[in-house]
Specification:
The complex is a heterodimer of chains A (374) and B (94).
Chain A: E1 4-9, E2 15-16, E3 20-25, H1 31-39, E4 44-47, H2 57-72, E5 76-83, H3 91-99, E6 105-109, H4 116-136, E7 141-144, E8 149-154, H5 165-178, E9 182-185, H6 195-200, H7 205-212, H8 225-229, H9 235-243, E10 251-255, E11 265-269, H10 275-284, E12 289-294, E13 307-311, H11 314-319, E14 326-327, H12 330-333, H13 338-353, H14 359-363
Helix pairs in contact in A: 1-4, 2-3, 2-10, 5-13
Chain B: E1 6-7, E2 15-18, E3 27-30, E4 33-36, E5 46-48, E6 57-60, E7 63-68, E8 77-78, E9 83-84, H1 86-93
Antiparallel strand pairs in B: 1-2, 2-5, 3-4, 5-8, 6-7, 7-9
The chains are: A alpha/beta (374), B mainly beta (94).
Amino acid sequence: MNEGFLGYPRLNGKIGIRNKIAVISSVVCANTVVRSVANKIDNAVAITHPWGCGQWGTNFSNTFNILTGIGSNPNVSGVLVIGLGCENLFSIDLANKIKESKKPVESFNIQDVKGGTISAIEKGVNICKKFDKEAKDLKKEFFDFSHITLGLECGGSDATSGLTANPALGIVSDKLVNLGGTSILPEMAEWAGAEHLLSKRAINEEVAKEIMGPFKGKSIENRSPGNIVGGLSTPEEKSLGNITKGGMATIQGVIGYTEKPRGNGLWLMIEPGLDVVSMTALAAAGANIIVFTTGRGTPFGSPVAPVIKICGNPKTCDYMANNIDIDASQIITNDKSIEDISDLLWKKLVEVCNGEKTKAEILGFVEDIGFWPV
Amino acid sequence: MKKNNFIVINPKDNCATALVEIPQNTKINISDKNIETKDIIPFGHKFAIRNIKKGSNVIKFGEVIGTSSEDIPEGDWIHIHNITSSYLKVINNE
């Protein structure tokens, strides 16, 4: 039997593994109304942020594009955009842009609803109840893994990350890519010292140059004193520990912040590397699922993409057991190989694609959103 | 419960990484070969699993992580005292 999963087909050809209703603020002034609406609907998530007004240029377009990307994510079955009514990020513009993904989208402004925020919340709840009913009628179908886009994230790293969780994730990413799927490796700052090795894996000369571009002429020393004490001897050794989560696959291209991969296979994303910003950018780039490797532990989740946590530090796996989905510390404590752990991670990924909730989903870490202020 | 006290990330690697602090003169069996550590290898640090001649590549993750600045016999600790970055050299020569 071919490998695959049961997912929700969307009208634009993408496949969702969740039916999230995204209630999105077009501006900070709508945040409390948005949160109040989302709290009353089972599958709704509140997409709130401190922006939407007083922004111009790239700063404005990044906010608009990230919110568009989150609303367009295939795990989202319906979208309600709520604005205030006088901001410079118009709720109707955002709604129209998200409608290009061919899903049900509605919008309104709080100032246009008679009865103030109490009526606005009621109006929002009624719209989302309709979305929720429509989503519950959707039937799952069997799809192969070419429909999965995986985000490769790491944070709270320590000496165990590059030895256990990252290489295990690399094997899983390669397997997904071999099955026709897509992986995205973000966090440009953590390729420094290994960018020439990434560029060797580029599909062509042009992509190789794009990878080297941001680093050209720079001699980046990325080791902290603690890294050296921890055993990292050179910049390339540090970055290799990071990029090993991208496996060995050919690199198809480089995408900018707020861009989406232009095909399947492994892609690199230029963005700074703060966990919340990376995860938000991955969700906006269309990732249906994210694997997050950690050493010191982190509770972070994503509003629209399930996040699987894998950790190689035995103490963290004990202290934060209810936040960690896969215990990769067995490579250190229990004679397991990286391959053994990558098998466990792949099985978990398939289960989560089929609907099993991750620890971050169960605990409700679904509201964290971050932007790259440019 | 058996513990791994070291890991070789990639079959191409000529170094292993300690997963615990490995005492001096510990006998280690790697791919049917016996190696004895010449130094204390701290957690997260590397030791040679083959003889590495001065000026050759040190390989971890299946990739070059630096160049040996002296002969490194198998079992020796590898760190900033005996390898230098290949990356920083490449960039500085441009």
